[in-house]
Amino acid sequence: MLNALLPALLLGASAVAGNPASAELSYTQAELSTHSGSAAVYQRLVTAAERVCANENRHSAMAATATRICVADTVARTVSEIAAPQLDQIHAARSVSPDGREAVVLAASGS
Q1: What is the C-alpha to C-alpha distance for residues 55 and 16, in angstroms, rounded to an integer?
Q2: Backbone phi, psi, residue 48, to 5°
Q3: Residue 48 and residue 71 in contact, taking contact as beta carbons nearer than 8 Å
Q4: Cα 96 from chain centre
C-alpha cells in the first residue's frame, strides 16, 4: 500500500498560522496499472482535496474561489508526484481550470 500526502494550497487562516492541512491518500500499484483503478484513485484524490480545501478555506472572504483554486492545485501536484501514466491521462481529461471552465486538451496529430 502506497500513500500520498495531499498538502493543500492554503488561502485561509491555517496557512498564516503555519499549520498546513493535509490528508492521506492510500493506493496500490495494482490500482494504478488499470484505467478503472486509476479512475478510482483519482476520484478519492479529488474527494480528499475538496474536503481539506473546503475546510481550510471556510473563513476566507472568497471561500468558493479559494477552494476551487486549492483543489485544482492540490490535485495537479499530487498527480504529478504519483507519476502514474494512466492517472496523468485521467487528470488531463478531467482537469478544470480554477475559474471553473473546462480545460482544453490539445493533441498533435502525426503526419
Answers
A1: 15
A2: -65, -45
A3: no
A4: 11
CA 103 from centre of chain: 14
Q: What is the pLDDT of residue 13?
A: 36
DSSP letters for 64-92: HHHHHHHHHHHHHHHHHHH--HHHHHHHH
C-alpha angle 66-37-20 in degrees, rounded to nearest 5: 30
Residue 55, Cα to own-chain centre: how many angstroms? 15
Q: State whether residue 6 is helix, strand or coil.
A: strand
CA neighbor of 21 nearest in space, from 62, 66, 65: 66
Q: How far is CA 106 from CA 25, 42, 55, 92, 102, in A?
A: 29, 21, 34, 10, 13
Show Cβ contacts of residue 84 under 8 Å, excluding neighbours closer than 6 positions: 32, 38
Task: Render pLDDT for 15-32 as a digit per residue (tens, 0 to 9).
Answer: 444 556 778 888 899 999
